[in-house]
């Protein structure tokens, strides 16, 4: 997960002007364009290094690394962070300043290992962050360290330690009356819990947040009352010193009584508004918990229904199209459910010779190809690491779809392309009518519409997409291919 928006994490703020490359990167980020944003952040990082502006360079470089692993380009992210560390080490600046910069590259690695659920490596970088924070002796960095510790403990189920660290941080900020920062910390923690689908983290955060809000409101009201009392005392002293007139004293007393009455009314109204807010927030908290429970129960219910239907359907005449379609549907539902539940468990890979592999897959559909359609295979004589079972399933499904939708005298192509040291692709294309742009995302979504199951259940491409994600890759439609439709299976070694 990428933790952002925390006000205390402002160690990168600099009086120097933001470069045009960084502005362009921020614009692309706001438009949710990951690849262009990453490109411009990396270019901005390299430009800042050349200018010797290392704080801005580290800021842009770590953002570029975060956008790498957002799309599962883990090795590229680690390589970029290693490059940033090398550039920091060459700078002629005090060691305390270097430690402040190293802190943020270690923090990015911590977030990567937390996303990969690797507790030992994450703990190692958390300790490194603590060493850098102590060395740079920056209070804002130390506050950020407390926040990162809390997130680490919550991520790996050590809620008691997380609560203790989080309480320490909120006490520090509350004691200095930085209420807006504490409020932003809680909101960020709640947002992180939602992004990571952690119902327990959201619930704990809401509970702690409401307790803190209640206590802070009491403190604020006490401060306001104390300030008003001081003002009243000062006014009375001033009146006693400057005017001994009974009339003036009475007028002042009457005014103070009116002020006290108005204050009492304001406090009563504020208490009413506060109670309504507390009740509304607690209702929202219960609604969120209920929604999360319902989602889990629905998934379990669908899986159970599918498993219970299968033995009953097998007792029927499987030659009937409807029975055959229902059996296929239950198999697909169970397969999709299993893939979704184990998507965080990496698939096993092996070295496969590409040319005979691709030819073998194509041979399995060759008999279905119409006589006027050309089936082409373009694969180099080399090997690649992949899960052969999953890749075979995906390519066969894509080729069968291509056979079904190719135009007369058209062409179906299966290709393999090496895109980088750690990235490779299988491409399946067919000429003919392309999938409309507004429907391209929908083809990967299961249960989007009610279908005639004898004509297909619409789960083939969602299953293929889940297999690709389990291999730390993705399955997409190439928007630049206009002669028909081209599916791209991208994998990362």
Q: How would a textbook summarize the main sheet?
A: 5 strands, mixed
Strand order of the largest sheet: 2-4-5-7-6
Give, in order, the helices and strands: HHHHHHHHHHHHEHEEHEEHEE
Unreliable stretches, pLDDT < 50, 5 or more residues? 1-15
How many runs of DSSP E, i.e. beta strands? Answer: 7
The radius of gyration computed from the alpha-carbon positions, rounded to a whole number of angstroms, is: 31 Å
Total of DSSP H or I helical runs spanning 4+ residues? 15
The residue-averaged pLDDT reads 82
The share of residues in helices is 55-70%
Task: Give the overall silhouette.
Answer: elongated
Query: How far from one another are the termini?
Result: 22 Å
Summing up helix and strand content along with how strands pair, one would put the structural category as: alpha+beta
Strand residue percentage: 5-15%
Explained architecture:
Strand 6 and strand 7 (484-492) form a beta hairpin. The radius of gyration is 31 Å and the shape is elongated. The model is unreliable at 1-15 (pLDDT under 50). It is built from 15 helices and seven strands. The strands form two sheets. The protein has a five-stranded mixed beta sheet, covered by helices on one side. A two-stranded antiparallel sheet has the order 1-3. The protein has helices at 20-30, 34-51, 54-70, 74-89, 95-115, 119-136, 139-155, 159-175, 179-195, 199-242, 246-314, 321-341, 354-366, 388-405, 460-470, and strands at 350-353, 374-378, 383-386, 411-418, 423-431, 474-477, 484-492. With 493 residues, it is an alpha+beta fold.
């Amino acid at each position: 997960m990428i933790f952002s928006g925390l006000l205390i994490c402002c160690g990168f703020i600099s009086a120097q002007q933001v470069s045009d490359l960084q502005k362009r990167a921020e614009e692309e980020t706001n438009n949710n364009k990951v690849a262009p944003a990453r490109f411009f952040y990396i270019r901005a990082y390299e430009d800042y290094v050349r200018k010797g502006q290392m704080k801005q360079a580290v800021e842009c470089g770590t953002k570029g690394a975060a956008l790498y692993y957002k799309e599962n380009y883990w090795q590229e992210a680690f390589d970029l962070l290693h490059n940033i560390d090398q550039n920091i080490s060459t700078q002629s600046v005090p060691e305390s300043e270097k430690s402040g910069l190293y802190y943020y590259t270690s923090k990015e690695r911590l977030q990567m290992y937390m996303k990969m659920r690797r507790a030992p490596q994450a703990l190692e970088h958390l300790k490194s962050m603590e060493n850098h924070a102590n060395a740079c002796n920056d209070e804002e960095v130390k506050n950020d360290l407390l926040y990162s510790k809390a997130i680490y403990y919550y991520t790996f189920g050590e809620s008691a330690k997380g609560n203790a660290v989080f309480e320490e941080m909120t006490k520090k900020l509350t004691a200095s009356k930085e209420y807006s920062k504490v409020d932003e910390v809680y909101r960020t923690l709640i947002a992180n819990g939602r992004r990571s689908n952690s119902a327990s983290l959201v619930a704990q955060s809401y509970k702690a947040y409401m307790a803190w809000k209640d206590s802070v409101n009491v403190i604020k009201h006490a401060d306001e009352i104390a300030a008003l009392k001081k003002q009243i005392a000062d006014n009375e002293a001033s009146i006693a010193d400057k005017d001994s007139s009974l009339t003036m004293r009475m007028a002042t007393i009457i005014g103070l009584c009116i002020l006290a009455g108005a204050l009492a009314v304001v406090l009563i109204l504020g208490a009413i508004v506060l109670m309504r807010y507390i009740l509304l927030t607690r209702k929202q908290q219960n609604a969120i918990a209920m929604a999360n429970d319902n989602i889990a129960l629905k998934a379990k219910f669908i899986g159970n229904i599918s498993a219970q239907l299968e033995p009953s359907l097998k007792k029927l005449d499987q030659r009937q199209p409807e029975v055959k379609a229902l059996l296929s549907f239950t198999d697909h539902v169970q397969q999709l459910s299993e893939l979704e539940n184990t998507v965080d468990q990496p698939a096993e890979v092996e070295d496969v010779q590409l040319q005979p592999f691709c030819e073998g897959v194509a041979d399995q559909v060759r008999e279905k190809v119409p006589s006027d359609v050309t089936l082409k295979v373009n694969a180099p004589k080399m090997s690649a690491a992949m899960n052969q079972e999953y890749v075979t399933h995906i390519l066969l499904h894509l080729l069968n779809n291509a056979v079904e939708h190719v135009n007369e005298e058209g062409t179906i192509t299966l290709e393999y392309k090496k895109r980088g040291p750690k990235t490779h692709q299988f491409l399946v294309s067919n000429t003919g009518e392309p999938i409309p742009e507004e429907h391209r995302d929908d083809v990967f979504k299961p249960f989007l519409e009610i279908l005639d199951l004898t004509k297909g259940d619409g789960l083939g491409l969602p299953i293929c997409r889940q297999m690709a994600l389990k291999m730390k890759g993705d399955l997409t439609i190439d928007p630049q291919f206009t002669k028909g439709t081209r599916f791209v299976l991208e994998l990362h070694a």
